[in-house]
Specification:
Number of domains: 2
Helix content: 40-55%
Strand content: 5-15%
InterPro entries: CRAL-TRIO_dom (IPR001251), CRAL-TRIO_dom_sf (IPR036865), PI_Transfer_CRAL-TRIO (IPR052578)
CATH superfamily of the largest domain: CRAL-TRIO lipid binding domain
Organism: Polarella glacialis
Distance between the termini: 23 Å
Radius of gyration: 17 Å
Domain CRAL-TRIO: 58-178
GO molecular function: phosphatidylinositol transfer activity
Protein name: CRAL-TRIO domain-containing protein
Largest sheet: 5 strands, mixed
CATH architecture of the largest domain: 3-Layer(aba) Sandwich
Order of helices and strands: HHHHEEHEHEHHEHHH
């Protein structure tokens, strides 16, 4: 099957080794799980389309030209289990748009995080495990914004299955600190789009339709939101 050939090339094997910190046995387990996941989700990765469950999208590139993925917890409209395909496609698109190292950055704005939408521990564990192997060593930096006490349960579940290497890339910051870091690490039009996303997602007068329209306007890629402007990057 095609996934076996694609996922046993030398670069993928090296990526798994880096993600496991050079642990050969762990990297073999990771590779096997990654191939299993790719086969199971074959139709998803072929279609590169899914039901939209939140505003997760590629919002631009940082100052090192790495694809920058953004999502706000306030936008989540479906349970975490139903959000998994969109998470996979966002990172799949980012890996295709990335440079040779295949890395991207993630900004997860936890404002208005919903415990009810994220109450399935099995879905969270599945997401963390599958994501951690399929996109092992793909993330250069993860910014968690306004991470509340309410979200600690989700973090505890994720932390248990994330490698130490990945955990070290995660930074928990306030919105104010996030704004300063975006100006420093990202800058340009992408920074402007991220700051405007912070604004509209905290605007109590903004409607769901306005926030959805903003997400569409600030996406630079047609995956996973399914919208594309003439100047955007498509597949």
């Amino acid at each position: 099957f095609p996934e076996l050939e694609e996922w046993t090339n030398i670069e993928t094997v090296r990526r798994m080794l880096r993600a496991s910190g050079g642990n050969h046995e762990q990297s073999i387990r990771m590779l096997a799980k990654a191939i299993e996941t790719r086969v199971h989700e074959r139709d998803l990765f072929r279609a590169m389309k899914c039901k939209v469950a939140c505003d997760m999208r590629i919002i631009g590139r940082d100052n090192m030209n790495r694809p920058t993925i953004y999502l706000c917890a306030r936008s989540q409209t479906e349970p975490i289990r139903d959000m998994i395909p969109q998470v996979f496609l966002a990172f799949e698109a980012a890996s295709k748009l990335a440079q040779a190292d295949g890395q991207s950055i993630l900004i997860a704005d936890m404002h208005r995080f919903s415990p009810m939408m994220n109450a399935d521990p099995f879905a969270i564990k599945d997401l963390a495990e599958c994501f951690g192997v399929v996109y092992a060593d793909r993330l250069n930096f993860i910014m968690m914004v306004d991470f509340s006490f309410i979200a600690q349960g989700v973090w505890t579940l994720c932390k248990a299955v994330l490698s130490e290497r990945t955990q070290k890339k995660i930074c928990f910051v306030s919105e104010a600190k996030a704004r300063a870091m975006c100006e420093e690490k990202i800058g340009g039009p992408t920074c402007e789009r991220i700051l405007s996303a912070f604004d509209i997602n905290r605007d109590t007068s903004a409607t769901d339709e306005e926030r959805e329209a903003h997400a569409h306007r600030t996406a630079i890629c047609d995956v996973p939101l399914g919208v594309l402007r003439p100047a955007d990057e498509a597949f």
